[in-house]
């Protein structure tokens, strides 16, 4: 127990019974929510940006709707499957695996019936999922390679959407490149604001990467996309090292995702 003098020095506050009860209730609510939804708010823009951008470029087809459901259910299934790999306790997440696995299988069925060619992407997804599983087993989920494997899975969705739409996937190479450039940059930038905030090497790598992405955007992706990447370069250079709340980091990336979406769709649609 802290003495009054220790509490004053450390800034600790003694919890009142009401505060303790409130914290316990809030903790139980978070626990129930996290039991069925992963506490990874940043994953949703990463999942939705490639899909939404590609759909706007190709035009919406009816199989795109069950594809979206299968994509999101597949992510939820993979989160709890990787948690089982990490902990070795499949029994703890069996209800989630059964629910999300069944939902993904049910929703992807009409997509495969309409466009069997989509199965051609399965080996690539399996390979990238194996990378994630290995890192989960080694408890190295925050490793850069693991993050890049997750980004690659999301970017592949651009080509899946094109295949479902009956559009040659190569026609969306520029869309995939721009989205991938943004998402990879986000991985580096977010690391410089949170886990690698004190790493000079990561800051230089992030800044150099964003500069290279800006050069590519200016050369091949049009002025609107280049303008967005110029803003992304500024945020990669100016914000690391500052003590930003996680909510602010997330909001900045949400705005970045929307800007990339608007610029890419405006250029390619």
Word description of this protein:
- The structure is a single chain.
- With 269 residues, the chain is mainly α.
- It folds into 2 domains: 42-52 and 59-165, no CATH class; 172-269.
- It contains 11 helices and no strands.
- The N and C termini lie far apart (63 Å).
- The model is unreliable at 1-15 (pLDDT under 50).
Topology:
Layout: H1 4-10, H2 17-36, H3 43-58, H4 64-87, H5 90-114, H6 122-137, H7 144-165, H8 173-193, H9 200-220, H10 222-238, H11 246-268
Helix pairs in contact: 3-7, 3-8, 3-11, 4-5, 4-6, 6-7, 7-8, 8-9, 8-10, 8-11, 9-10, 10-11
Record keyword descriptors for this entry.
11 helices; mainly alpha; 269 residues; single chain; 2 domains; disordered N terminus
Short overview:
By secondary structure, the chain is mostly helical. Helices cover 79% and strands 0% of the residues. α3 (43-58) packs parallel to α11 (246-268), α8 runs antiparallel to α9 and α9 packs antiparallel against α10 (222-238).
């Amino acid at each position: 127990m802290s003495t009054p003098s220790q509490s004053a020095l450390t800034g600790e506050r003694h919890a009142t019974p009401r505060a303790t009860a409130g914290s316990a209730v809030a903790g139980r609510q978070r626990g129930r929510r996290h039991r069925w939804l992963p506490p990874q708010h940043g994953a949703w823009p990463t999942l939705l940006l490639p899909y939404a951008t590609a759909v706007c470029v190709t035009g919406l087809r009816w199989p795109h709707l069950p594809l979206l459901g299968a994509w999101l259910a597949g992510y939820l299934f993979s989160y709890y499957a990787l948690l089982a790999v990490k902990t070795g306790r499949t029994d703890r997440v069996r209800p989630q695996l059964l629910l999300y696995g069944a939902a993904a299988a049910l929703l992807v069925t009409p997509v495969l019936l309409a466009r069997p060619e989509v199965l051609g992407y399965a080996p690539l997804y399996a390979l990238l999922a194996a990378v994630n599983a290995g890192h989960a087993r080694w408890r190295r989920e925050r490793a850069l390679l693991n993050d890049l494997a997750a980004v690659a899975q999301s970017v592949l969705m651009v080509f899946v959407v094109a295949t479902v739409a009956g559009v040659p996937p190569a026609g969306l190479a520029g869309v995939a490149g721009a989205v991938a450039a943004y998402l990879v940059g986000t991985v580096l930038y977010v690391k410089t604001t949170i886990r690698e905030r004190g790493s000079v090497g990561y800051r230089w790598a992030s800044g150099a990467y964003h500069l290279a992405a800006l050069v590519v955007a200016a050369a091949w992706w049009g002025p609107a996309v280049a303008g967005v990447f110029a803003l992304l370069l500024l945020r990669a250079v100016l914000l690391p090292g500052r003590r930003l709340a996680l909510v602010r980091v997330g909001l900045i990336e949400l705005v970045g995702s929307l800007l990339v979406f608007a610029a890419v769709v405006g250029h390619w649609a």
